[in-house]
Amino acid sequence: MNKKKIINDPVYGFATIPSAFIFDLIQHPYLQRLRFIKQVSMTHLVYPGALHTRFQHAVGAMHLMSLAIDTLRSKKVSISPEEEEAVLIAILLHDIGHGPFSHSLEHTLIEGVSHEMLSSLLMDKLNEEFGGKLSLAITIFNDQYPRKFFHQLVSSQLDMDRMDYLNRDSFFTGVSEGVISFDRIITMLNVEQGELVVEAKGIYSVEKFLIARRLMYWQVYLHKTVVGAEQMLLKILYRAKELSAQGHNLFATRALRHFLTNKISHHNFLEDERHLDWFTQLDDTDILSALKEWVYEDDKILGTLCRKLMNRDLLRTELRNTPFLETEIAAVRDKVKTYFELDDSEVDYFVYTQVVQNSAYDVQHSTIKIINNRGHVQDITEASDVSNLEALAKRVVKFALSYPKEIGHPLDEGDNSLKSN
Fold first, then answer.
1. Percent of the chain, pLDDT > 70?
2. What CA–CA distance (Å, rounded) separates 169 from 102?
3. CA nearest 101: which of 307, 239, 286, 305?
4. Which of 31, 64, 194, 339 is the most buried (most CB within 10 A)?
């Protein structure tokens, strides 16, 4: 069988599957599952084109990695065929542990277990299944390989993961502010003393990359309507788990039922291998099929929330730079309680606050290094002549309050001190 295939990617054009083993990995059910998990969760409720998947992202990131390897080799960086295949596998599988709706339901179905941990566990299972052929890829993925630049290409502040998702998410949402010069940045990559650096000629493209990341977070990923919709989905799953614990027999696929009827935490998840096996059968379709059925549940809370989400009758979300006052929250809760005839505990399913935050450049972790033509290496914040680049390293915090639209705009009524800013 010819396993050297070409995939037509709408963002980059033709992307080549470089080896028979990587083809076998792509065909594995663990990776094929990513075809049914949306890359940006509920974002399609704001940007209708944002229906692309984790599978597309994984293949796209692998394509960018192959371009980066070609660039480094052209600059006399020694990379063996084994290292090349391993780093391609590491980036291909970096998101294999994502669950339904990507980040939205993380820690919900399995408390305290991150997608990074799940990715690592699934890579270990694949390594066992394929007779140890992923060992080097896992070493690179876990940052245990002495040539650090390989891990930096997989996971850093300028990795192929971020480069693909910014480019891809911008493409499918139509938000042009996220477009980055990925090809220019990759062409400017180099290695100095075993670490990834960017040649000074590429500094403006990196600056644009950081600014695009900032804009995409607040315009797309943390858009107030997206934030509110994701919280609705979370509340639905919490209510479904609560009802299941009380003995209600809710409709669910076999995989979803396992997580609704069992309290699974970080501790007992690792004790029973069945939990991971059931997880590998979960994707967006499990959740969507349940939502469609739960619309007809007798439980008022579950039925109402599912009906609203399926009909895109979303909660109104106010987003601002200062925390909401207790008096503001209490006023909203009272109105919702009266309108929907709820008790105090039930109001929590319809009114909620959250804190959202982001920094485009995290100086506390790996940094982006710029190398000039004299071989001098600096952090980009020192090398850049953009005066506000350091501001991108500051964590921006905003506060959200979500509530049903039926109660109007309570924050805009009466006393000016209660108005959203």
1. 96
2. 14
3. 286
4. 64
Nearest to 256 by CA among 126, 99, 129, 376: 99
C-beta of residue 46 within 8 angstroms of C-beta of residue 223: yes
Distance CA 91, CA 293 (A): 37
CB 35, CB 100: distance < 8 Å: no
Which tokens is 411 given? Answer: 């924050």
- Distance between CA atoms of residues 35 and 173, nearest Å: 18
SS3 call for 3: coil
Residue 312: how many CB atoms within 10 A of its CB?
Answer: 10
Question: Does the predicted TM-score (pTM) go above 0.90?
Answer: yes
Per-residue tokens: 146: 């002495």
Contact 140, 87 (CB under 8 A): yes
* Amino acid at site 52: H
List the structure tokens of 56: 């597309």
What is 6-93+134-222's CATH number? Answer: 1.10.3210.10
Q: Which helix (H) or strand (E) holds 308?
A: helix 300-310
Please write the tens of the pLDDT for every residue from 100-149: 998 778 778 888 888 888 999 999 999 999 999 999 999 999 999 999 99
> Which residues have C-beta within 8 Å of that of residue 330, sequence separation ≥ 6?
none
Query: Measured at the alpha carbon of residue 158, what is the angle toward residues 155 and 159, in degrees to the nearest 5?
Result: 40
Q: Is the pLDDT of residue 357 over 70?
A: yes
Nearest to 335 by CA among 383, 403, 283, 285: 403
Long-range contact list for 416-420, CB < 8 A, 24+ apart? 417/325, 418/325, 418/327, 418/328, 418/331, 420/318, 420/320
* Residue 401, phi then psi, degrees to nearest 5: -130, 125
Distance of CA 272 to the CA centre of its chain: 26
Could you write out the three-class secondary structure of 205-258?
HHHHHHHHHHHHHHHHHCCHHHHHHHHHHHHHHHHHHHHHHCCCCCCCCHHHHH
Report how far residue 135's alpha carbon sits from residue 120's, in angstroms, rounded to the nearest whole number.
12
HEC letters along 107-173 = CCCCECCCHHHHHHHHHHHHHHHCCCCCHHHHHHHCCCCCCHHHHHHHCCCCCHHHHHHHHHHHHHH
Cα–Cα dist 150/88, whole Å: 10
Enter the tokens of residue 392: 């991108």
Domain ranges (residues) in the chain? 6-93+134-222
